[in-house]
């Protein structure tokens, strides 16, 4: 009877070792689908230009229109009324 009692722990530990070696490591990775929330609605802010007239010595640029599809912004050159200065003379060679 002493021999049977000493064999049981040996048999149990041997079976556990064999089951571990034969079974291997099982790992399953499940695919997760994560849905992103929809983007927030975009808000378009149209800014009115602070300066509608840009002045130069020989004239000015004036901005017209309100920036909509019916009346888009556009710049118009308004000369000062004086004739432009003559171009500088060509350099001599």
Word description of this protein:
The protein is of the alpha+beta class and 93 residues long. The protein has a domain at 47-81. It is built from one helix and three strands. The protein has a three-stranded antiparallel beta sheet, with no helix packed on it. The model has no long low-confidence stretch (mean pLDDT 75).
Architecture blueprint of SSEs:
Blueprint: H1 2-23, E1 53-56, E2 59-64, E3 74-79
Strand content: 15-25%
Q: Give the N-terminus to C-terminus distance in angstroms.
A: 126 Å
Largest sheet composition = 3 strands, antiparallel
Q: Give, in order, the helices and strands.
A: HEEE
Class from helix and strand fractions: alpha+beta
Overall number of strands = 3
Q: What's the helix count? A: 1
């Amino acid at each position: 009877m002493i021999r049977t009692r000493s064999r049981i722990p040996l048999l149990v530990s041997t079976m556990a070792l064999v089951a571990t070696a034969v079974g291997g490591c099982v790992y399953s990775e499940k695919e997760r689908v994560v849905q992103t929330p929809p983007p927030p609605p975009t808000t378009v802010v149209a800014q009115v230009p602070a300066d509608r007239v840009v002045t130069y010595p020989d004239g000015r640029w004036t901005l017209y229109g309100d920036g909509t599809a019916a009346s888009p912004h556009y710049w118009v050159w308004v000369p000062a009324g004086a004739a432009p200065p003559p171009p500088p003379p060509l350099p001599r060679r």
